[in-house]
Write a structure and sequence with these properties.
Layout (H helix, E strand, L loop, with lengths): L1 H17 L6 H44 L35
Length: about 100
Amino acid sequence: MPHTCLLRDTRSWASGLSSPGPSSAGSILSGMRDLEIGRLRRHQSRQSGAMAHLQMEVDRLRTVLEVEGIPLDFSEEDDGSSSDDAPPYSPPQAVAGPSQRRR
């Protein structure tokens, strides 16, 4: 869809170039600037829509977690370290020994 809008805008801008009368470099640059502004506005609109969709999904998931009784704690003093005395998780080590692979 964005390509369709850009193609339409470019065609309308190009048809203005072929119209009789003098075209200055300033008017050409102004037309190109207007096309870019339109493109940026469409992009911003799509981004706003995506952000709204993501925020709704965050709210939905937060509600699901609350219903399940899973607490959400986003306190600022949380630096990622564990507050209890349990040692950090370490994966089990592989047992050293002869290879079981046959050739």
